[in-house]
Amino acid sequence: MASPLARRLFLSCLAALAAAPRAAAPARAQGSGAQGSGAPVDLALVLAVDVSASVDHEEYALMMGGYAAAFRDPSVIGAATEGERGAIAVTMIFWSGPGATAEAAGWSRIDGPAAAEAFAAAIDAAPRDVVAGATSLGGGVRAALAALGRCPFPAARMVIDVSGDGQANAGPPLATPRALAQGAGITINALAVTNEDPDLPAYYRGELITGPGSFVMEALDYESFAEAILRKLLRELGARLFT
Q1: 38-60 b/e with 16+ CB inside 10 Å = b?
Q2: pLDDT digits over 173-199, tens only?
Q3: Residue 145 confidence (pLDDT)
Q4: What is the pLDDT of residues 116-157, one digit of tens each?
Q5: What are the structural domains, with CATH classification, of the chain?
Q6: What's the CA gap between 51 and 146, in Å, rounded?
Q7: CA 85 → CA 49, 110, 156, distances in Å?
Q8: pLDDT, averaged across the chain
Q9: What is the pLDDT of residues 216-241, one digit of tens each?
Q10: Which end of the chain is more exposed for a tag (fewer CB within 10 A), N or C?
């Protein structure tokens, strides 16, 4: 595993080289007393959300509602604040076809209910500011790595949380950013929505996930997305509340 210094240098270089996602939500939620402080966190988490053409407006609404509800859930807030540093950092990006990425909710330090509510509200307010094109999973992971490079909070762990319903069909090869994540000690996990592609979990296991403790979870459809993303976040946060 890469040393913390090597990992930060790598991410800083990547952030400088990568095109930054367009800011879709100008207001950024910050933990209490943490704005601009760079206070350390137990986890830096990028929520990398597939908003390609396979995700219709109703499905998009179900996804966003599920994410927002998860950050309002007391079990998630408890898991986010029970670590040594008492907080996590989280951001959300949208990705679609080649070059189509956007920051949906900026980096936020979640250190209690007020900060978690502010981040949930940012998710509620995030416009779908990405062209609903092809599925550039490699581009999405690259944008997530660049987002980690811009994280203002020193983190003990770094995780990219991908959610999607299809395999890559456009854009740069996925193998390259996946290898970069692996070399930097960054974990990539995935939530596969399988209503259109029952083979997606196997694809994610073979081609996408990497790093310490990486895993794939499944949602049979978007109606079950909220429950699945809640369980996935708890697992990523280290809670022992899932089966």
Answers
A1: ebebbbbbbbbbbbbebbeeebb
A2: 999 999 999 999 999 999 999 999 999
A3: 96
A4: 999 999 999 998 887 778 989 999 999 999 999 999 999 999
A5: 4-236 (3.40.50.410)
A6: 18
A7: 27, 11, 9
A8: 86
A9: 999 999 999 999 999 999 999 986 54
A10: C
The answer for 213, left when phi > 0, alpha when psi is -120 to 50, beta otherwise, is left
pLDDT of 129: 81
Gap between the Cα atoms of 243 and 41, Å rounded: 26
The number of C-alpha atoms within 13 Å of 107 and in the hemisphere containing its C-beta is 26
Contacts of 20 (CB under 8 A, 6+ apart): 103, 146, 150
d(CA 33, CA 37): 8
* Residues belonging to the chain: 243
pLDDT-based confidence at residue 12 (cuts at 50, 70, 90)? low
* Amino acid letter for position 109: R
Task: Please give, one letter per residue, the 3-state secondary structure of the chain.
Answer: CCCHHHHHHHHHHHHHHCCCCEECCCCCCCCCCCCCCCCCEEEEEEEEEECCCCCCHHHHHHHHHHHHHHHCCHHHHHHHHCCCCCCEEEEEEEECCCCCEEEEEEEEEECCHHHHHHHHHHHHHCCCCCCCCCCCHHHHHHHHHHHHHCCCCCEEEEEEEEEECCCCCCCCCCHHHHHHHHHCCCEEEEEEECCCCCCHHHHHHHHCCECCCCCEEEECCHHHHHHHHHHHHHHHCCCCCCC
